[in-house]
Amino acid sequence: MKTFLFQGDSITDASRDDEEIVNAGLGCGYAFFLASEFEKQHQGMLRFINRGDSGDRITDVYARIKEDIINLKPDIMSILIGINDVSHELTMQCGVSPKKFRMIYEMLIDEIKECLPEIRIIIMEPFVLKGTATEKLWTEFYTEVRKMAAISQQVAEKYGFDFVPLQDKFDALSNDKNAGYWSEDGVHPTIAGHHLIKEELQKVLEKYINEF
Fold first, then answer.
1. 126 vs 80: CA distance, rounded Å
2. 88 touches 133 (CB < 8 A)
3. Residue 179: per-residue pLDDT
4. Distance (Å, rounded) from C-alpha 27 to C-alpha 92?
5. Please, what's the largest Cα pairwise distance for the chain?
6. Do 153 and 163 form a contact (C-beta atoms < 8 A)?
7. CA distance 87 to 96
8. CB count, 10 Å around CB of 52?
9. Pairing state of beta strands 2-8 and 162-164?
10. CA distance linking residue 14 with residue 154, whole number of Å
11. Domains, in order of start, for the chain
12. Is the Cβ–Cβ distance between 122 and 79 less than 8 Å?
């Protein structure tokens, strides 16, 4: 059985626990929705593990690389990171600059590939909506998150990885009147928002069915 690893921040974490049972501890977000739908359609094809950690920036994911990525030996993994690199800087002055974000992201990928040369990595686009956590600094949030999104896509292109765009998907469905339907605070998705992420990630995952 192949292993799929979800990696990222609180959007991926989604109140998961640390249960080690196969397909358990997936939280209540897009990781759970994707795993449950995939298992329904392709029984026993993948083992799903979620190691998203609330509050993480790219530097924190890199700090966990041995325990929460390499030691798990995933065959395929997704990474959704970048919003905290911006929000921590805007609200607490402890974020990660775009230059450092790119540098650490590439270090992360290089080290993973060195230890797991056959791994497939799916890079997901960080996104932001207008909400209680972002509206006071909306221009800054949107501008800086778009920088992280562009870097994420460039990293995916550099290594030949699949990239999952999300901002345009949310923007097309959201406006000032219904943004709260997709995100509770502009950062964390609602159930509907998590389903949107799940659908976009699943489109990419389905490409690999014949390899599992």
1. 6
2. no
3. 72
4. 27
5. 47
6. yes
7. 9
8. 27
9. unpaired
10. 27
11. 2-211 (3.40.50.1110)
12. yes
- pLDDT for position 122: 98
- Whether the predicted pLDDT of 176 surpasses 90: no
CB contact set of 73 (below 8 Å; sequence gap of 6+):
3, 116
Helices 83-92 and 138-159 cross at an angle (nearest 10°) of: 150
User: 80 φ, ψ to 5°?
Assistant: -125, 105
Task: Give Cβ neighbours of residue 88 (< 8 Å, ≥ 6 apart).
Answer: 57, 94, 95, 96
Amino acid identity for residue 145 in this structure? V
Structure tokens at 191: 């159930």
Place of tokens 């990474």: 79
Least confident of 21-35, 52-66, 71-85, 120-134: 21-35
Smallest CA-to-CA distance from 105 within 91, 89, 123, 130 is with 123
DSSP one-letter code for 208: G
